[in-house]
Specification:
It is built from five helices and eight strands. The chain has 180 residues and is α+β, with helices and mostly antiparallel strands.
């Protein structure tokens, strides 16, 4: 796999550009996840350092596994409106979930409901399917209706309910490899 130079987007859709994360993106990405409206389904509100660690961990998946989180920018104005992608992580949730490619999407609260997450994730999944052709898992906090609807549109199906280390109830999902 060849990664594009950081001076150009990795994926482009009708309305969006998906970029490899860069250090200058971190303040805006943290601003998005720190917003209480956006963060309400992301677990306990963390400190700036917690947010930084999460973003760096998810972005670092690129170097280790060849896939990871992307900064989502609007093509019309270049503003970061979220992040999404497929990253590799261990959450301590069991053999049917850990050590797998995990899909995730976070869109700024002011942009929710405009189809940006679906547009971005369809591009990411098409790329991932072509490059890796294997299953993707996801987790969604119970009560997050919009994310459950999006996951279904993207081909994710229920795996099981689980509890995060902090006690938060989540639904684990699985998207089978293409062609299965």
């Amino acid at each position: 796999m060849t990664l594009r130079h950081a001076a150009s987007p990795m994926l482009v859709t009708d309305r969006l550009e998906l970029w490899l994360p860069q250090a200058g993106d971190l303040p805006r990405m943290i601003e998005i996840v720190a917003n209480p409206e956006t963060h309400r389904f992301l677990g306990p509100q963390g400190t700036y350092a917690d947010h930084m660690s999460r973003i760096m961990r998810n972005s670092g998946s690129w170097g280790l596994f060849g896939y990871g989180i992307l900064a989502v920018k609007r093509r019309d104005n270049g503003r970061i409106i979220g992040n999404c992608g497929i990253f590799h992580t261990w959450r301590g949730l069991g053999e049917d979930f850990d050590d797998r490619a995990e899909g995730g999407w976070i869109i700024d609260a002011e942009h929710v409901g405009n189809g940006y997450a679906e547009e971005a994730m369809r591009a990411v999944l098409a790329w991932f399917d072509a490059e890796f052709g294997r299953e993707v898992v996801a987790l969604i906090t119970l009560g997050n209706g919009p994310s459950f609807r999006l996951a279904e549109k993207l081909g994710f199906r229920d795996l099981r309910e689980a509890e995060m280390p902090g006690g938060e109830a989540v639904q684990l999902l699985r998207r089978p490899p293409p062609g299965s």
